[in-house]
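The pair is set out directly below:
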Amino acid sequence: MLKKFFWNLLSSFVGAWIALLGFGVLLFFVLVGMIARVGLSAASEAEKLEKHSILKVSLTGVIDERSPKFDLNYFKLIQGDLDQAQSLSTIVTALEEAKENNNIDAVYLECGGVSAGFATLDAIRNALIDFQKSGKKVYAYGDAYTAGTYYVASCADSLFMNPEGSMRLQGISSSVPYMKGFFDKLGVSFQVVKVGTFKSAVEPYIMNEMSEPARAQLDTLYGNVWNHIKSGIAQSRGIQASDIDRAVDSNISFASPQKAVDFRFVDRLIYNRNIKESLARLVGKDDPEKVNFVNPTLLSSQTDWGQAYTDKNQVAVLYATGEISEGSESGINCFKLVPEIVKLADDDNVKALVLRVNSPGGSVFGSAEIAEALQYFKSKKKTFAVSMGDYAASGGYWISCDAERIFADPMTITGSIGIFGLIPEVSGLADKLGVSMQTVSTNPSADFPTLFKPMTPEQYQVMQSYVERGYDRFVKRVAKGRRMSESKVRTIAEGRVWDGTTAKRIGLVDEFGGLEEAIKWAARQAKLGENYDVALYPKGDDNIWSMLPTAASARISEMVTKAITPGMDPDIAAHAVEVIRRRPVQARMIPLDLCITRR
């Protein structure tokens, strides 16, 4: 089996590069053809901004922080599937433009199953409420509302649902796979060193069920978030928060759609064609097909917001989204982000920086490198603020805590001030594969830490001391950045995650607000008045040549995963491989699969 693994690994590399070389020209023409087809299709159904248009916001699919890089997937390209995730920045910018644009009469929310974090949903909802201040209306319709889409849509002036539809309000839950039994079957165990009673990110790999501290912190977190959601819905719909719990507990998700009307969650049950007729009357059209809908991308393109790269009074917005790593092409690659920060620090046009953080943490080394670069930025006497998205936890908080001002959403998940070491030991797997690893060393710990034998008590103590030193550095950084005593930081640290509301109360966050509020504060602090513009970083640099190696690497990784764990669930297998390959010492929160956002 080991021989098969290495042959599969070799063939993966060779096959991938032969595919790139042999089919590169074909791929190029396929890509051009797909883009041309999309372009022709767009031209044939060209959207244009005209009088009495309606901005249509589709609350379906994935919503990322920023327009994602194009995903070069060979099979999707051949099938003509070029769908990409929506971005929060595009939706919010479009709503801001719609508020002032005389060609836009209203906003129409088309609701389905959306995959987005709590703070992302809150940001869209707040942007809709701000849009309504213009006197223009928001209309919402859904065949089936999830808790996430309904929370956003509940602020609409009129809210409709399909008579055959459903209101899937079920509260908040999350599922975390505890994988000890899985790793036992593989012959893989983990040696753990950590600081923090609540630092539960290691639990899924060494336990079969959730610990009481882990469950307790999540109970509190979800309870606070759910209260915020209920409060928003209740205020918008003119009902009591207790009525929402009563509806949820009565299993409204599986009740007759009329129950949604009875609970005053929706105004009326109508079919899709009827909502289009209503919107047609709103804009003075006699034919629903003549209503001119525009999408957020088109409307956001009417403004050059975020593109002021040559402006002399520039507020830079730097996105730090995803897991923090050292060299990964996905998430926050410290080796790419650090030079970006240094460049902004040395750019005389940049007067202030807003770091937009949406990260559950990751590599301690990567977090420390980014934090040091941010200190360099501050040394230039420039304003530095942080705007937190869905997550800014563990390593995400490490890079945030030294900001002059931290903005967060009440539903941001933050804190998790703690560090752990997760050192895999695979001698059991080697035995299963018939491998006997023989080592020759000049010193007892020359190969420490190694995958193929457990740590000695002395080595374990070395790792524990190493992690404790890292934790002390983390605590000192938070204490300095937040202007707290170290003793106070330790009482709210211990690896515990907090919702934004609690984080503000205990001093981890300064102010509630989104990216726009953070930008305005940074401009005022930098004494720019109203004479400033915004530039978004990193700049987009997608091109086919930069994507080819990434696509090949992804394909190789997929093949290797299948080779190591044949016949197993591919998602679980890929996660297992990723865990084994991680850096041993991490500042990362427990992975959460939040069910509020999905159908």
